[in-house]
């Protein structure tokens, strides 16, 4: 079940999309929206933040809330440059969980993940697989979750193919404010060669992602190894108007 602010955000997005709130018009105030939808102002504020992030509205002091566009500015593309793109990637691939264990972050791992040395994490080792090419997995991914969160969605991890941070949001209300990414060229580690069906030390991309919540806390981190012949990282640069 979605958090109440997410449900309200969806309603506002739909109302803007179908013209109930037209581009250029003013949205009701936070107080009015709170009364209209029967939720708290805090819920309204969180919902508006999500709608604003999609570029649908602007909020300014004394000017109120203005509708800026009828459609989100981010569209699904074959790229990995937004959370929406990550969701699309998760939808069209399968997650094959190999193991789930609780670990203590060693100094090198802690530095890579941007967390405290010795902190506890639930690590899920898995393969991402294209159903059309099951013999050549797209990547191997180690997912690191806060233990409480990992335990709470452990069963879902094995059953669902969706994005893990979406599960975390639905179950715990931890919203991804940003995803920090680091990409580097690596050789395929020997331990991953067999499950990936690739040669050890072959060319690969290693992508580390840090999922940061609204408080600036990393609650999920992933380290993925993509054999070079199975994945292309694409993104677009646009000049700001």
TrEMBL record:
Pfam families: GntR, UTRA. Signal peptide: none annotated. The keyword Ribonucleoprotein does not apply. InterPro entries: Bact_HTH_transcr_reg, Chorismate_lyase_/UTRA_dom_sf, Tscrpt_reg_HTH_GntR, UTRA, WH-like_DNA-bd_sf, WH_DNA-bd_sf. Keywords: DNA-binding, Transcription, Transcription regulation. One of its GO terms (molecular function) is DNA-binding transcription factor activity. It comes from the Bacteria. GO terms for biological process: negative regulation of DNA-templated transcription. Gene3D superfamilies: Chorismate lyase-like, Winged helix-like DNA-binding domain superfamily/Winged helix DNA-binding domain. The keyword Transcription regulation applies. Residues 2-70 form the HTH gntR-type domain. SMART domains: HTH_GNTR, UTRA. PROSITE patterns: HTH_GNTR. PANTHER family: MANNOSYL-D-GLYCERATE TRANSPORT/METABOLISM SYSTEM REPRESSOR MNGR-RELATED, MANNOSYL-D-GLYCERATE TRANSPORT_METABOLISM SYSTEM REPRESSOR MNGR-RELATED. This is DNA-binding transcriptional regulator, GntR family. It comes from Chitinasiproducens palmae.
